[in-house]
Amino acid sequence: MKFVISREAFLRPLQLVAGVVEKRQTLPVLSNVLLETEGQQLSLTGTDLEVELVGRVSLDEVAEEGAVTVPAKKLMDICRSLPDGAQIEIEQDDTRVNVRSGRSRFTLSALPATEFPNVEEISGEQTFALPQAQLRHVIDRTSFAMAQQDVRYYLNGMLMEVSATNLRAVATDGHRLATCSIPVTGLSEAQQIILPRKGVLEMAKLLTDPEASVSLSLSTNHLRAQTEDFSFTSKLVDGKFPDYGRVIPKNGTNVMLADRTDLRQVFNRTAILSNEKYRGVRLVLSTDHLQVFANNPEQEEAEESMAVTYSGDSLEMGFNVSYLQDVMSVLDTDQIKLTLSDANSSALIEEPEGGDSMYVVMPMRL
Predict the structure, then answer these.
(1) 124 has pLDDT over 70
(2) In total, how many domains does the chain have?
(3) Would residue 342 count as lying in a domain?
(4) What does the alpha-carbon distance between residue 4 and residue 67 come to, in Å, rounded to a whole number?
(5) d(C-alpha 261, C-alpha 143), whole Å
(6) Residue at 260 is within a domain
(7) What is this structure's pTM?
(8) Which of 19, 22, 72, 361 could staple 33 via S-S, CB 3.0–4.6 A?
(9) Could you tell me the CATH number of the domain that includes residue 175?
């Protein structure tokens, strides 16, 4: 195998593919990236057995065909360290791979391509396409609420629910919930899958061209996303996601409308003096007025007040300020709508005109 490629053309797919590769592996070949050449196309593949990413790059000249695996991080570090505009020549030499650029020479150890594992084929799938911008929007609006290392393993990921006309994403860590729904076409049956956290975050990195489309294939065990340059496959989490519909508050009567930017700044300032561990703030709502209080074990205190639109009962309740900040960060409307039933109920946060997203934040005792 032998090919020549520019540093810029090689670096982006290599960085994305290397992002999938786990740094500490029991199988040495899983620390490697698979390089394959055929005609004028170079394919790069990385996997951790749960997630697989294949990147494709067109070469200027026909390459010497072949396949080999090399250490992903070392190859990426070499390419990063080379100057802009550099040409890179990569050539296989038995159990070694030679990397040349200008006056630089590197020799990397290699493992045979036959040792590299393949993610099993997807079967029983349904496929549909949507704009990359839409899928990225859904992920950005919800992924922050995924659990990180919860023993309830099905929360360490995102529920994707498709129906005849909609794609809905739902994420929750048990303390807050985020959901976003967009219209889609071309679906034959309703289906629910849970995409693991790593799969969600790695797939989002591929969605960089808002104008282009992405094709999603769903099966019982895998999700595959394909763009013009990448093919991404992730195993699914085998578990039952909670019934999120029961968590979303219904018929709340106390509705507050507030300027999103002003409210976000109030939360940012009061968070400075909140308890570093529990992050609690106290909200006091009265007619057209909101006060936010925070304190910490050092007896330091913060107090903020702002004008809002509110005509319900006077309420006092506590929330984790980080959860409120996260919601303010992903919404982009001028105003936000916060609905409550009483002082002990969860808060429902959404865009005033309804929008495509809903957020539920549970209260906390202060």
Answers:
(1) no
(2) 3
(3) yes
(4) 15
(5) 21
(6) yes
(7) 0.92
(8) 72
(9) 3.10.150.10
Amino acid identity for residue 270 in this structure: T
**Alpha-carbon torsion, ordered 288, 311, 343, 364, to 10 deg:** -40
Both 133 and 64 in a single domain?
no
φ, ψ at 278 (rounded to 5°)? -95, -20
17 has a pLDDT exceeding 90: yes
pLDDT at 120 over 80: no
Q: Among residues 245, 279, 295, which one ends one of the domains? A: 245
- CA proximity to 151, closest of 167, 170, 174: 174
> What one-character-per-residue DSSP string does 47-85 give?
E-SSEEEEEEEE-SSPPBPEEEEEEHHHHHHHHHHSPTT
Comparing 42 with 124, the larger pLDDT belongs to 42
Which band of pLDDT confidence, cut at 50, 70 and 90, is reported for residue 110? very high
Separation CA 92–CA 110 (nearest Å): 9
Domain range enclosing 78: 2-115
- Count of other CB atoms within 10 angstroms of residue 102: 10
Spatial distance between the Cα atoms of 55 and 5, rounded to a whole number of angstroms: 14
Could you report how far apart the first and last alpha carbons of the chain are, in Å? 65
What does the pLDDT look like over 269-317, one tens digit per residue?
999 999 999 999 999 999 999 999 999 999 999 999 999 999 999 999 9
pLDDT of residue 351: 96
Is position 11 within any domain?
yes
Same domain, 151 and 215: yes
- Residue 322, beta-bridge partner list: none
| C-alpha separations of 120 from 22, 191, 280, 306 in Å | 19, 21, 46, 56
Task: Please state, in angstroms and rounded to a whole number, the distance separating the CA atoms of residues 46 and 276.
Answer: 38
Say which residue, 257 or 189, is predicted with more confidence. Answer: 257
Coil vs helix vs strand at 233: strand
Residue 121 lies in a domain: no
Tell me the per-residue pLDDT of 157-167, one tens digit each, with 9 for 90 and over.
999 999 989 99
Longest Cα–Cα distance in the chain: 77
222 and 164 both lie in a single domain: yes
User: What are the CA-CA distances from residue 147 to residues 150, 152, 233, 289, 362 (Å)?
Assistant: 6, 9, 21, 33, 15
- How far is it, in rounded angstroms, from Cα 54 to Cα 43? 7
Q: Sign of torsion, CA 82 85 86 87?
A: positive
Q: Which residues pair with 126 in a beta bridge?
A: 218
